[in-house]
Input
Amino acid sequence: MLIVGLGNPGSAYVSTRHNIGFMVIDELCRRHSVQNISKSSFEGELFKMGSHFLLKPTTYMNLSGRSILAVKNFYKIDEVIVIHDDLDLPFGALRFKNGGGHGGHNGLKSADAAIGADYTRVRMGIGKPEHKSQVADYVLHPFSAGEQEQLPQWIGRAADAVEMLFTQQCSDVAAKYSQKSL
Output
């Protein structure tokens, strides 16, 4: 299984809303004994965790699919989970689904174009700005101080859910871990 956390590389983006997927991958790496098996051809940071792979694409969000496809093809992986921020859900929401549309998310658009849309999504709600014109600025800014206090609990819950996806169906994980907000 390939677990992908979407985000943008570089220190300027570390704590931004768009990088919540990277944060969950970091938590999984912290919890487990992982081996860094990154190669330049993967265009991402790749970790092996038992029989699973954890990926943080370094292509920037809009080109994430290139990295996902490279790893998927190299290791002949069929099952992919993508963890991503979701503007259509309130802050702290956690949802799960198999397949679906990209909802305007550039990382998902790239993944869909590269590997098709038939993968499991871990949707992490980040809320949305007042005006649509503020979206790019909103997702590329850090969480508020109040939100940052709640991040460890939320990221931990998402990591727990991903671990359950190793052995359980998406519907079972959704029944246990879905939440409307924090």
Summary: The helical segments are 20-31, 64-75, 106-115, 135-139, 145-165, 170-177. The longest strand covers residues 80-86.
